[in-house]
């Protein structure tokens, strides 16, 4: 439980921080696609005898930067993402079958395994979380401009392409990290829902980030406690709690 709370808190912080930029840039759909790509990467990691997290990092970073470079033009973004998602799911199933792992391995990839996370996984998550947060804070201003005012950022930011690639890499790393607690199928929940709710309450970007982190931590901590008491997967409670927070924010906004 101590390891679960440590990793869960780090994941909530990273997801809340990056999630605000993801939602502001209207790229929530890409986080969902990366979750499916992450499934293929984790399965590939098992097939190669690596940690699933390593496979997810390779697949999500390569895919995020490739999709970003191919462009999110209106005319081809939907078909491109659909094709990538289909290939990713197919590869994930194939690698799982070839690795000859049992059903528990597949369940861990799809829905997370926070209570059985190893010491090695904890170190990996801590290192990746620190990298994402440090880089995000150092590049905060250009990332904020890129995410919240993209139309002017194209002309005012000198290295807009590199900033976009950096953003996609940070997003891919966040997806890979978050899979440790909610699994590859539900990664987008922690990245998008707390941030979406926070953006309806916060008035400044820092307020949005703070609220997104708070909502993420509340959801993760509550889910861990409820999962421990009821023996129901953590991801189920995270989905219900974060969705509940988001729906409350919708009601508050309407009022």
TrEMBL record:
Any one GO biological process: transmembrane transport
Keyword vocabulary terms for this entry: Membrane, Transmembrane, Transmembrane helix, Transport
Alphabetized InterPro entries for the sequence: ABC_BtuC-like, ABC_TroCD
Subcellular location: Cell membrane; Membrane
One protein family per Pfam: ABC-3
Transmembrane segments: 6-24, 44-68, 80-100, 121-140, 160-193, 205-228, 234-251
Protein name: Cation abc superfamily atp binding cassette transporter, membrane protein
Organism: Weissella minor
The organism's taxonomic lineage, starting at the top: Bacteria, Bacillati, Bacillota, Bacilli, Lactobacillales
């Amino acid at each position: 439980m101590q390891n679960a709370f440590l990793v869960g808190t780090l994941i909530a912080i990273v997801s809340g921080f990056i999630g605000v930029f993801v939602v502001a840039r209207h790229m929530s759909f890409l986080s969902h696609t990366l979750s499916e790509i992450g499934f293929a990467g984790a399965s590939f990691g098992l097939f190669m005898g690596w940690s699933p997290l390593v496979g997810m990092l390779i697949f999500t970073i390569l895919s995020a930067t490739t999709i970003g470079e191919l462009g999110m033009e209106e005319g081809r973004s939907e078909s491109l993402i659909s094709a990538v998602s289909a290939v990713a799911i197919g590869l994930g199933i194939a690698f799982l079958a070839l690795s000859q792992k049992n059903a528990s391995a597949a369940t861990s990839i799809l829905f997370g395994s926070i209570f059985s996370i190893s010491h090695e996984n904890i170190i990996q998550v801590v290192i990746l979380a620190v990298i994402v947060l440090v880089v995000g804070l150092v590049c905060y201003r250009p990332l904020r401009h890129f995410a919240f005012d993209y139309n002017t950022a194209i002309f005012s930011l000198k290295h807009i392409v590199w900033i976009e690639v950096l953003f996609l890499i940070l997003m891919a790393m966040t997806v890979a990290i978050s899979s440790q607690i909610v699994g590859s199928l539900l990664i987008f929940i922690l990245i998008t829902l707390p941030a979406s709710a926070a953006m309806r309450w916060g008035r400044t970007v820092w307020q949005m980030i703070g609220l997104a982190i708070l909502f993420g931590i509340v959801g993760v901590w509550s889910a861990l406690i409820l999962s421990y008491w009821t023996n129901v997967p953590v991801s189920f409670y995270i989905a219900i709690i974060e969705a509940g927070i988001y729906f409350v924010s919708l009601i508050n906004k309407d009022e």
